[in-house]
Amino acid sequence: MVTNIYFISGFALLVVVMLLIDLGLFNKKAHKISNKEAAIWSCVWIGLAAIFGGLVYTFLGIEKASEFYTAFLIEKALSVDNLFVFILVFGFFKVPEQYHHKVLFWGIVGAIVLRAIFIFTGATIISYTYLPDFTILGYTFHEVNIILTLFGLFLVYAGIKSLGGDDDDEQDFSKSFGVKIIKSIFPVTDKFDGGKFFTIENGKKVGTLLLVVVGVIEVTDLIFAVDSIPAIFTVSRDPFILYTSNIFAILGLRTLYFLLANFMHYFAYLKYGLAGILSFIGFKMVIAPIYHISSPLSLSVVATLLFAATIASIVWKPKVEEKEEEKELVA
Hints:
mainly alpha, two-stranded antiparallel ribbon, 12 helices, disordered C terminus
């Protein structure tokens, strides 16, 4: 417990320092994030996560370290889906590229708070929803949890459903719940005013379109958390491991977004890998009372599915993208 307190204090300090450095030192002036800058920061965040996992291994052992890395990888992989939607949101509202970073920054800050509420509340609820051991047909079931079993079935369903068609490209984000929330709290305008969230219009202080976009991003992350948070609960019951791995994963999303936006063809088959991860995690949740799949094995399965999907996207490009590249060469 004392070790966890030191870890939590050090982790909180690291997050605050890195956010201040990111926003205050490297992004004083609004600008478009280059691929080089995005790649460097992505390596920084992944490197910090790797180092932190190493500290977990040193002080808490291989099982906790495996839980940390598995939860980190699951959250990182599932969060890529968020990024595809973020690209659509920015395109729909025509957000100038130099302000993408600012919107994502405050979206991440909001996610840090919301994930804490989700994880620690969820851990408490789960601790009270275990059934007494029972026997069916001579087999005794141990530690059956109602919430985790329902979430497991939901994740299997979500994984299968995600293989179907996706019509997000045609979604009208102006009618999303995030827009309704912002408009219910502040009077808003349908215009941007540089990188400001508030401006003066007709003598009144109103929220800008940039503020509305932040609201949409926050609600989008909240929706995706319905998948990712239950998924990591199958990896560990330790809120410390779950929260630290979760935060390290989402802190790197901002820079990963800029790489993804420019190299989307490298993720063409990622949805199949994510579907497999969701289904595997759901299956693990459901069979947990019968058979325990170890954290190292879970880490191997998740990493293999993610790696295979990425390699498939690089090797076998969709025909539509190949034709578009041919047109660009001809032009």
